[in-house]
Amino acid sequence: MIWADTIVQGVLLGGLYALFAAGLSLVFGIMRLVNLAHGDLIVMAAYLILVLVTLLGIDPFLAALISAPVLFGIGWLLQMHVLNRTLGPDILPPLLVTFGLSIVIQNALLEGFSADSQRLSVGALETASLALGPLNVGVMPLLTFLSAVLVIVGLNRLFYSTSLGRAFRATSDDAVTASLMGIRPQNIFATATGIAMVVVTIAALYLGTRANFDPTIGPARLIYAFEAVIIGGLGSLWGTLAGGIIIGVAQTLGAAINPEWQILAGHVAFVIVLLFRPRGLFPRAVD
Amino acid sequence: MALLQTDNLTAHYGDFQALFGVDIRLQEGETVAIIGANGAGKTTLMRSISGVLTNRADAIIFDNDRIGSAHAADIVKKGIAMVPEGRKLFPSLSVEENLLIGAHGRKVSGAWTLESVYEMFPVLKERRLNPGTALSGGQQQMVAIGRALMSNPRVLLCDEISLGLAPVIIKDIYAALPKIKETGTSIVVVEQDIGQALKVADRVYCMMEGRVTLEGAPSDLSRDAIHNAYFGAAA
Q1: Domain span holding position A38
Q2: B97 closest CB neighbour out of A166, A182, A286
Q3: List of residues 6+ apart from B170 with CB closer than 8 A
Q4: ipTM of the complex
Q5: What is the reported pTM?
């Protein structure tokens, strides 16, 4: 039963990693942009939620709801005025610019909030649990996982059932031909980054309520996100959820054997998947 | 005043000049063919008109509007749609989605709807859920033409629509042009196949090395004049 509990906890933790990864997967899937500042953007969003909670005395969930459109706007402007200029046949400029952005965000957060650890408090929800048969499951981990599933379902519906999603996929296939359909690729890319930032807001909410955060933890979140995206298969959203779950389960199993092995076990799982399925578990048919 | 005209249009790829002062005219309801050998500048002319290559604002006039420097997306909105060379269907989209996205930038009511495109090319309705790129070359060309028509354009630019297709398929594809013309759409057809071009066109322009070398109605152009304009007088 301990093992079953460990695996369930791992699956729920995978939901958090999938949330870290979904925005990254979305942006990569549409514009082949690897955003090295993704983890720092999650931390920045967590601080924005924290500021709203502190200043207005509101619940973190409400603060996240208010933050989401603000971060959509920040993402839109960032893509339109900075990242779009880096896109082209050479993959180096976006990597360099987002790496620089990562350093800028970390240092700005250090200046503004110091290196002290922070946390978002959700009161009694933090310790609440549900009895699912013989297992006890934390309400917050369960909410995190359900949110991840909802985000993936929502993004999939957006992608495959709306005209905006059609435009996303067409622009991803061939931006020049897409412009012959009346699509402005630059606007599409900015909208995609805006939506990715809404997902980042949700990830930030659960990051901040689950554990302490400080301005420097972004790059580690980026690594988990990367691993989830790559295990799942580049550009596949359901694959990203599967990737997050695999890392989460590997980490909790590793920790159950020896607490020091938690992080290592996640990375080892990543390497094993990469050895046998170099394109990930569910690669998109067209890449 | 022509519906669409280019005025001393030039185009460059880096240091290489591909067009040298090209002037063409397209009247409302007319079908114009642009013929020429490989490298004559036909596709560059299409890319310029469709906004893929930008130019001086007054180098291209459409319905009294200077569109030479406009973005391709804005040109579609104004009513010029292109069937690009090589079809360029979107691999991630099904046949139906490829058609629907043709109307993304210009949603105006007109003769062309999903149903009327399926009526013209019934095979597409049978395969509407297949990925566009899973179709045969001729069927893909039908999708590319249908996709451009979905915006109910005033001008349809067709770039090498017979390229790489079997003669019997080319015949089917070209059979669609008179139907499109009947809806009032003006058409520019770029072709290397002179025979096909002369059959459908009201007027023909021949290009060579980035310049227009001959212009006229098919009935006014002699075989020798076309040969000289196409290959050069010394050929």
Answers
A1: 2-87+151-276
A2: A166
A3: B162, B193, B196
A4: 0.92
A5: 0.91
